[in-house]
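look at this one:
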Amino acid sequence: MPLILPESTNLPTVVNDTADVSHDALRALSPDTIVHEIKRLQDSVARLRDSNHQIQQFVTNDPDAADLSTHDRQQLHTACHDNLGTISKQQGLIERLVGVLSEQRGDPRAAAHYAAQAPAQQAASTQPATDPPQTESQPEAPAASGVYL
């Protein structure tokens, strides 16, 4: 799902390539919208990582994988590579949104709070992110509907 921007910005209402979204356009979003978008992107990253992990597990451990053609193996490799590209873009947007949220709240600690799940601290790997890493400031079991902090 693409990022939805308010009508008051000079950008199209729906943006598919978030790299072109200006800092001012992101600042025009409400804090609730930003938190929702961070949550949505974190969920997407976790699902993409899980997908890559499942593909990797299938290719390395499933007996049926031995019957895959070279073309099929290449397709699976391409899917994982594409997922990694999408993960990288989404992590970049999460970082930008966390920065804007910190600005809006006027508290630099807000960025540190959200950075517990910030992309810069996660390697872009094919390993799944089924649960956010636990830190001292996190509850043991984050709410399924909350932003992973």
